[in-house]
Sequence to fold (481 residues):
Amino acid sequence: MMIRRLIAVLLAYFLSAMPLGGEESPADGNGAEPRQAVLLDVKGPIGPATTDYILRGLQQAEDRDAELLILRLNTPGGLDDAMRDIISGILASEVPVATYVAPSGARAASAGTYILYASHVAAMAPATNVGAATPVQIGGGGGIFPGDDEDEQEFDFFNGQEEDEEAENGEAAEEERAEEEQRRDRQPDAMERKIVEDAVSYIKGLAELRGRNAEWAEKAVRESVSASASEAVELNIIDFVAENVDELLAKADGMTVKVPQGERTLATADLEVELIEPDWRNQLLSVITNPNVAYILMLVGIYGIIFELINPGSLVPGVLGGISLLLALYAFQALPITYAGLGLIGLGIAFMIAEAFMPSFGIMGIGGAIAFALGSVMLFDTDVEGFEISIGLIAGFTVASLIIFTGVATMAARAWRRPRMGGADELINAEAVSEEDFDRQGHVRYAGERWNAVAVRPVRSGERVRVVEKDGLTLKVEPND
Fold:
């Protein structure tokens, strides 16, 4: 009876939940889901975490069949690999992407300029700027000086006759030679030229694809020029200026853009906008790919493992060290690091430990600290804003590492060299005092205790004897001559 009633209740519920043939869906008159735009909010340097956030946002927009993905951008630039991954995702996206530099006061500098150029729709809020897209030299080296005239960038070679004329001209020749040396110092090397030319070709290709100003894009790379929002509209860098997202949707309505499937006319008026926040995975990636955090995790991992090896069985340092080191390695595979920097850090730690076991009057310890500091500075192979290690952090860890490793290693070395105490080892060669005269068996006193003794040679009462052997509770002694 109860089962029948339960079936009847469930059947009535499902029948009431089913829409009747002439009823409309709550969503809209056609029974379709509300049309929507997906909004991603990107702030700060472009890095691995940003790439993960945007690419996953693009996938979610496609899964939801969104009409538009809005990328609200405010960035000083970022890593080249991360930028190119994002642009590849935008170019392959089935959902049109509108990059919106906002809010007022925001910027799309360096990598942000490339992303803006790659987007199907480009917009900026008032009082924002775009540009300064010159690539930063990776791995150090001399600076790039865009904007030098071609004549200035050519090397001048002097023949013997010209050198003689310079010598005769005296001071004028010296001044000319000094100017020539300055020009040569400013001359970008082959690698720097290659980086700039590659960046120019890349952004010009994006400009041609989207029908935007390729000449200004080249200047943004070569000369680091920037433009305000109003200037960007006049120069055909962006499509329009919008006060807010609603105005962006209104102005983008009816635009025709190119997607992989072909041309598509946007219908963005009255779209519902849904903001997709970074999830825990992206937030964790954002934290650990911060160079300062990755650096700390690496050192905590190294410290923990070393302390676990010194004091086996404590577990806590080893567990924390192992987890920290794995997180650091995960961050390093997403960041531009140099193996030379890692090698110098390892060499510095080895030198600081060796100082305790092989005293060198501080030479190895100081050398290790220097190698550690240099390796830390060289660890991340980029000068991009937001991806440098704090010099103060390096200095603090260098001093702390020198103190910790030298101190711990010194204590370990002393403990290793100290003779073992306790049991029979403590009694051998120890001094005892005879309690009586005896030539074979008798008693001696050691450390306030009375022991049976066997004498190698006769001893007298009160005589100091040396323990040469221990057999159970009997000591074998001889006069301490």
Summary: Residues 1-31, 137-167 have pLDDT under 50 and may be disordered. The domain at 424-479 is CATH 2.40.50.140 (OB fold (Dihydrolipoamide Acetyltransferase, E2P)). The first strand starts at residue 36 and ends at 43. The chain is about 50% helix and 15% strand.
